Protein 1
Amino acid sequence: MEHKLYAIELTVKLNEEENNNPAYFFEITAFGIFEVSGDNDDEQNRKLLVTSSITLLVGATREQLTSLTSHGPWNQITLHLVEFTDLEK
């Protein structure tokens, strides 16, 4: 059985052009190393990584952003849910 390692990086940043006078300015980069095992071809691995790894990184980023901003003087920020099925294409 073959094991492949993949490095995935995700950056989430406040769109300053669409936010008039935001309470916080932020840019968060999350990085993960994911291992895929099995006899999948590269296309199957890519689809698996796109849906699974990005979902995990966004969840971790959402949690950190909410936690950090909940201790500030303004309301906490929570990232909206995002569907990643279109990224498979």
Note: The mean pLDDT is 83.
Protein 2
Amino acid sequence: MPVYVNPTACKNHNIHTLADGDYLGMDKQYPDIHMTTPVKRSKKKPELTKPEKRSNKRHSSKRIAVEHSFGGIKQFQLLSGIYRNKEKHYKQYFVAIASIRNFRSLATQ
């Protein structure tokens, strides 16, 4: 899956993203990206219906693997703080950490 630095570079691509609650409203800002977010309660509607709860459960079941990956990468302090090295090395560090995480997950299977 390609990573886009510039969001306008993803035009004319059929991109579907499972996002968490922090990304509410982003689908309006980037209409070319199909973003699925969980259903939220509101003051007008304080309870979710059973289908909405099931939908949120399915959504979170798919998202948990992504959240665990971010947590594993944050153990290396690359994403959890301010990056103070040269910008051109960031991708190399990220790929190295992702490789270590992938190797560790394969080794524990």
Note: DSSP finds three helices and two strands in the chain.
Protein 3
Amino acid sequence: MSKWRAVANKASFGVYDESGTQIARINTNLSNQQAVAQKLAASPDLYEALERLMKWAAPIAGDNRNEAAANEEIASVGQARAALAKARGEA
């Protein structure tokens, strides 16, 4: 898992990788700068977790005996695929 972290600086929030390299800086003019930095710092971990989840969830999506639940499973897998594609720059 990634060790990106959000750090408060004097006038902004920064996102840093495990080596200490700044990956992003969120300026103070954003009212939600801390939340943005935290989400950005978590994104590699979320991507990895979603990829792992899709390996077992995608093949069984729709197997639920309840039609509404099966449809929700299929829609969820579709949404996850779209998010992963977007993160890879494919969408």
Note: The first helix runs from residue 33 to 60.
Protein 4
Amino acid sequence: MAQGTLFDTEPDPIGHHGYAMTRQSDPTTSMAAAFKHEVTGKAESNRRIILGELERHDGQTGHELGASTGLGQVECCRRLSELLKDGLVTRCESDRPCTVRPESKQMRWWYAGE
């Protein structure tokens, strides 16, 4: 019997409490990558890194968090949306320019506590 691969497994899009969330329109490879990111613990580890950074320095943009954590803006924004759903962070608009991308107005993220 041949051993299955990660790509043989259908990701369960029930949310980050089970597996990483994906859109139904995402390619299978993206779903598999999101699934792997969750089951290896990497997504949870990154959520903890982001929360820790916001505890220390509230009110950062996704770009600022990406730079300060080393995770990058895309990864931070993916994890922030999950943290928002859990009520662990809040967001709001701000007039302060982003220190990483000052030409654009971006949402600020705030630690909501536990």
Note: The chain has one domain: 12-111.
